[in-house]
From TrEMBL, chains A, B:
Cited SUPFAM superfamilies: Class II aaRS ABD-related, Class II aaRS and biotin synthetases
Enzyme class: ligase
Entry keyword Transmembrane helix: no
This protein's GO CC annotations: cytosol
Physiological role: Catalyzes the attachment of proline to tRNA(Pro) in a two-step reaction: proline is first activated by ATP to form Pro-AMP and then transferred to the acceptor end of tRNA(Pro).
Annotated HAMAP family: Pro_tRNA_synth_type2
Catalytic activity: tRNA(Pro) + L-proline + ATP = L-prolyl-tRNA(Pro) + AMP + diphosphate
Subunit structure: Homodimer.
Sequence similarity: Belongs to the class-II aminoacyl-tRNA synthetase family. ProS type 2 subfamily.
Species classification: Bacteria, Pseudomonadati, Pseudomonadota, Alphaproteobacteria, Rhodobacterales
Superkingdom in the source lineage: Bacteria
TM spans (from-to): none
EC number of this enzyme: 6.1.1.15
Protein's name according to its UniProt entry: Proline--tRNA ligase
Organism annotation: Maritimibacter harenae
């Protein structure tokens, strides 16, 4: 993309309404604009990051054998009356009536609706196991929306639902989700720690939240420092293997890690003192096993091997897609701006022409732009008539992990400069070598 | 995808509530499930087609230089009060209040919100031209929703908005949209004819609707038969070229083609009688030029070359993404089921194992499955224990354009069968040649 043809409305001043760094940087970098309290429009740069996160979530869900669907944002109140949650849910549920006076609501979650799909179409244990998921906008009428997309009202979430014949099978689905979540977050360059949590309005026995450590996190967390040394890495997991998934769960959850909701001081104090950590975390996902809590009242049953009608065992599993954009920034920034991990960056690299209008510099930039694009990469080329300093500041603010700087002086020596946003280190390379370097980084 | 691990709830019986063929076939093929009146969940097969259409629309929008953003589904009533449309819009607008009693609405369109983004961030003619678009769910509270996704209440739409300094520039944006729409529909295997239309609640002077001819269309259309011979084809269009875009517009709109709203009997009768056609059509898109209708009341101005503040000239341009799924089926089906055009098919081909459990047939199917997947194609392999006839009926119903049939008898002669869903014609080929044939069809 050529910046002269893009829409990147960066702000010079720090917006006063933003209390946390991710909100400030998203506004300054022209990623979002508030549409109304807690509701945001995603401007081009922000939307690209959101789409990258969405793509990774889809890919990892499908890898785990989960099947994508899409349920509507608005739901009929009738389904929620069946489960008993229509009256139980508080004022965070946005309710409305259509022109015929029928009660509707903007879905904050989809247990009822997906159970209704299941009961209409599945009747036999032979069709199990089944996990359906979608990535769809939800609404939660926060009394005091704040922190930008981290605690907005309309938010994008992946929610998945497993249907299994037995509790044992459903616990495998739980474990499988835990494994695939670890992999999902790592691909985004995030360490998200599974912590024993409280089940809240979803209900159920087993639940883990995934937390990203960050000073601005809304939850206080308590953990054994050994847990931050764990890496999921490039393991070749068979998601059908009960043993493999169980093994990963044990590895990642056997050490103490809890949010303040479930914190147990006595257990915590059994960790050697030098490994005890108290910090803050941002919740970016949660998994639940809740058995027959919805299938029983809603009649979601299957015939088992012996011909009996039994309610299915279920769980639900969420990833906060729009919130992750904020969490990523909280975990990856410095005082100049954002530092995107390569896995989610909106553009693979920036090209800064320090002397726009200089024939040689312009031509070199064009060549780099074309070579990178031909390799399947998306560079952002700052081709505007502007001071080099202003161009550097913009690139630093929007956080592209790599920058190629092109100027007449370097070109005289046959080189351009490749700079890492994270370390600030630069390397002088011939233009072709610069392209090869960026391709190598992204493995294309 | 292996059918034994997929969720494809096909129905044996024709649902009685469905009045038109696309609605019937979408229910029977397990593509959608009604969630409430006029609101649908997209089941796996339907969601795949929806995503394919969305992808094509994104690709063609970006090719035309338009920039993707994403605005929220819910909007504040305040913006609509500024434009004067809050009171003017009828009961099709779904209105609600949040917990603080603030008036909100589920956006039926986004002229106000995008104008608000523009006025907040753009101040100079130097930042023009600019076209922002998004693909987002909308809501229209139809008094009597029907025809499935063709006239649902929650629907997915691409809406784009151009901002230009002059009327002339805005008319180029209008033409550019017309060209890119022609290309978009053709890639989906659809002929959509631009017809002079009425501007309705969007307002404005110039507007064309794009209509797909189909017996079940809601509009009566009148046209010169020469228009159906026009093909956009594989033209290499420069979207920046005023002349080229104007040329395409003239080519595709100079012949008579109007909906009943703008039909002019006198003009129509000037066409030679043998070329006069009266038919029915489904609207799948519309483009508008409306000048300063929103920019003036909302203060969306820029500084022009002379330093004057002038309101920008705008237009808006929509493609009915979810409705296209229905329109595609209306235009592509027979009495056995759907016939997907290759551009949007949910799976590139089906593999039918006529004797599941036969070692040789199973192995041949596995090999085909792996070879096609390795080529980047997505086959749907019916690996269930079921009669061959039932498997064929399912493949015909869900409409994959190509089927490979594998059975012990053919394998004895070293062949499998490749069948076209559209023509019914079959070819016997060695398995490797069958893979090559499918790859050739999709150009991979």
């Amino acid at each position: 993309m050529r910046l002269s043809r893009y829409f990147l409305p960066v702000l010079k001043e720090t917006p006063s309404e933003a209390q946390i760094v991710s909100h400030r940087l998203m506004l300054r970098a022209g990623m979002i604009k508030q549409a109304s309290a807690g509701n945001y429009s995603w401007l081009p740069l922000g939307y690209k990051v959101l789409q990258n996160i969405e793509r990774i979530v889809h890919e990892e869900q499908k890898r785990a054998g989960h099947i994508p669907i899409l349920m509507p944002t608005l739901q009929s109140a009738d389904l929620w009356r069946e489960s008993g949650r229509y009256d139980a849910y508080g004022p965070e549920m946005l309710r409305m009536q259509d022109r015929h006076g029928r009660d509707m609501l903007y879905g904050p979650t989809n247990e009822e609706m997906v159970t209704d799909i299941f009961r209409a179409h599945v009747g036999s244990y032979k069709d199990l196991p089944l996990t359906l998921y979608h990535i769809q906008w939800k609404f939660r009428d926060e009394i005091r929306p704040r922190f930008g997309v981290m605690r907005g009202r309309e938010f994008l979430m992946k929610d998945g639902y497993n249907f299994d014949l037995t509790k044992e099978d459903a616990l495998h689905a739980y474990n499988r989700h835990l494994v695939s979540y670890l992999r999902t977050y790592e691909r985004m360059g995030l360490q998200a720690i599974p912590m024993r949590a409280d089940s809240g309005p979803i209900g159920g026995d087993d639940t883990h939240e995934f937390l990203v450590l960050a000073e601005t996190g809304e939850s206080e967390v308590f953990y054994d420092s050994e847990i931050t040394d764990l890496k999921f890495g490039d393991r070749d997991i068979d998601y059908d293997s009960v043993e493999q998934c169980q093994g990963v769960l044990e590895e990642f959850t056997s050490r103490y890690a809890r949010t303040d909701e479930t914190h147990d001081e006595e257990l915590f104090n059994q960790i050697p003192e030098e490994r005890r950590r108290v910090a803050r975390g941002i919740e970016v996902g949660q998994i639940f096993y809740f058995g027959t809590k919805y299938s029983e009242p809603m009649g979601a049953t299957v015939t088992d091997r012996e011909g009996n009608q039994v309610p299915v065992h279920m769980g639900s599993h969420g990833i906060g897609v729009s919130r992750l954009v904020g969490a990523l920034i909280e975990a990856n920034h410095d005082d100049k701006g954002i530092i995107w991990p390569e896995g989610v960056t909106p553009f693979h690299c920036g090209i800064v022409n320090v002397k726009q209008g200089d024939a040689e510099a312009d031509a070199a930039c064009e060549d780099l732009y074309k070579a990178l694009s031909a390799a399947g990469l998306e560079p952002l080329y700052d081709d505007r008539e502007d001071r080099a300093g202003a161009k550097f500041a913009t690139m630093d603010l929007i956080g592209l992990p790599w920058r190629i700087t092109v100027g007449p002086r370097g070109l005289k020596n046959g080189v351009v400069e490749v700079t890492s946003r994270r370390t600030g280190e630069s390397e002088e390379l011939a233009p072709e070598a610069a392209v090869a370097r960026i391709r190598e980084i992204y493995g294309v």
